[in-house]
Amino acid sequence: MLLSQLSNGAHAVVQRVLPSSADVGAATLRRLGELGFIAGEPVQVLRRGPGGREPLAVQVGETLFALRLLEAQCIEVQAMDVCVN
Amino acid sequence: MSQSLGVEPTLPIRCIALVGNPNCGKTALFNLLTGARQKVANYAGVTVERKVGLVHLHNGQTVSVVDLPGAYSLTAATPDEQVTLEVIEGRRAGEDTPDAIVAVVDATNLRMNLRLVLELKRLGRPLLVAVNMADVARAQGLKIDLARLAIELGLPVVETVAIKHNGHAQLLAQLEQHLAQPWPSAPASTASASSADLQREVRRILALVAPLAPTLGRFQYRLDAVVMHPVWGLVVLAAVLFLIFQAVFSWANWPMDAIKGAMAAVGDWILAHMASGPLRSLLVDGVVAGVGGVLVFMPQILILFFFILLLEDSGYLPRAAFLLDNLMGKVGLSGRAFIPLLSSFACAIPGIMATRTIANWKDRLATIMVAPLMTCSARLPVYALLIGAFVPERRLGGLSLRGLTLFGLYVAGVVSAMGVAWVFKRVWMKDGYQPLMLELPPYRRPSLRNLAQGLWERAHIFLRRVGGIIFALMVVLWFLSTYPAPPAGWDAAQGPAIQYSFAGMMGHALQWIFAPIGFNWQISIALVPGMAAREVVVGALGTVYALSGVDASVADALSPVIAQGWSLATAYALLAWFVFAPQCLSTLAVVRRETNSWRYPLFMAAYLFVLAYAAAFATYRITLWLGG
Predict the structure, then answer these.
(1) With an 8 Å Cβ cutoff, is A16 touching chain B?
(2) Fewer CB atoms inside 10 A, N or C side of chain A?
């Protein structure tokens, strides 16, 4: 599943980073990797911005990032436990 | 000092560069190392800040230190990161290649920070690792085996606490030691490593060095639950903004009055001690008035920057951007535009300078373009004069009608900025999606030393850059409004002297343009010197109506004169004009500097003029129609 599909509070592990739409360039994908969205890294969606859609506050490793929906859709994850609905 | 990449440096080490992730406390460490002995400028050709300072070692030697912009990796994604990479590799023209690199890492986030260290190591340059914020890590119960870290990295490692008085002792000792003997450097590696490869190595090292991964304190999560809450977060944000506005507009009054008073005293002193003549006029009306016009905004700008630095240091600002990203995204701006636009309420100039934090060029340009629509403090004297003269002191449901009018003018600015940004992004710069990818760093207690040093820097930059521009313009405008002098035999009964000057001629010519929106020739003349700085319009109106004295008394004397002489429609049209007011040359000069092109400032002036004219025209006609 995609990082964008996780509910608030859910834990997961990054599987891979892949382009979600034509708007997302190679530079964005590379930067996601450089920020720590790398296979095997633990992630948690903490919350979403006002409106409940985007941006997403995502913790990867020990760092918190704000991602827009399109970036979050580029990250394929494996949900960890029962937190996921 | 310019060796090419990979060549063993000659001794002694004269220049070191600090490199690290954003938010690793690098700038605090730089401030601690160099104290007040630092120079802030721009890298040639780009608007990326360049900080250099000297560090004095205990043995009396000095080493120069460069604080390079924060970078997440050595594959540059922003102009800032590009500069960092070019300086390290010695490819930046006019910059000395640093003899050694100090990689600053956040002890509480080695997992991310060590990737950059591994990348730096592959450059094969002399490298030293400073594990910063070691105190915070210890407080979190995180134990880092620094000796083991040095072995695993194959690099010297020191511990630093950038916010403590002597927190850089180990770093200084290490620097001293390496002044005497060659700095170790790892063999250069040309093969590129992927983030995944680097992370594998980081995991291996971390397992040996700090097996117990730290977790963000519960405090951080609890605070975020409020600060980033969809409802409470916005309430907190509104309260913070209200406090800042309150501070900027009320705390600043006292020092502003003091500066005005001092300037008036200097002017009076010159008037009393110098014979009348062109030189006295230049000094009093040009130099003192010009410098005073800039200085008077210093308190507001310093108070605003105090809050911005405080919020920045504490980690709050990115959270505000997180809350507003969705809203600002609707009009095509990034949440990052929030900070520059907030600054623009004091003055568009620091606001436009603050757009440097926006990585995407088009986002940045759109933000620059709408920054002047945020009602800057220079418009306040004009608003105050017109509202005082034309809006009756009445109360509407407990609120002052004058206060409501002022508030309405601010709202008009914000609403039109949103409209303009929307049009820009849809029509002019068709571009779909822009990534956000904004780090939300842990909350930290701001350090007083950093606040003081940041304020000092901002004050310095503001005075040097803007003082120069406004000062030069003031002298030019003084010349335009003084020469040619009125003909022989002129006396004040024939009208003010300014109408014979170049500015007067321009004002009379401009009246053809401004008559349809209800401006008389006096207003048209006043708009000419008002190009330097908007608040000068008040003084210029005073000159035109043959009044004299210091600014405050001019406004007091002017109020009844214009209340009698102007129609309500004219006054409202002038208020509407000033919501958009295109005529601040120093803003345009800064836009020229920040965009490296005349295209954008010219476009900005044109679109603001059209909007101002249209708004004033509509206001004038509607007020006349309503019987005003």
Answers:
(1) no
(2) C
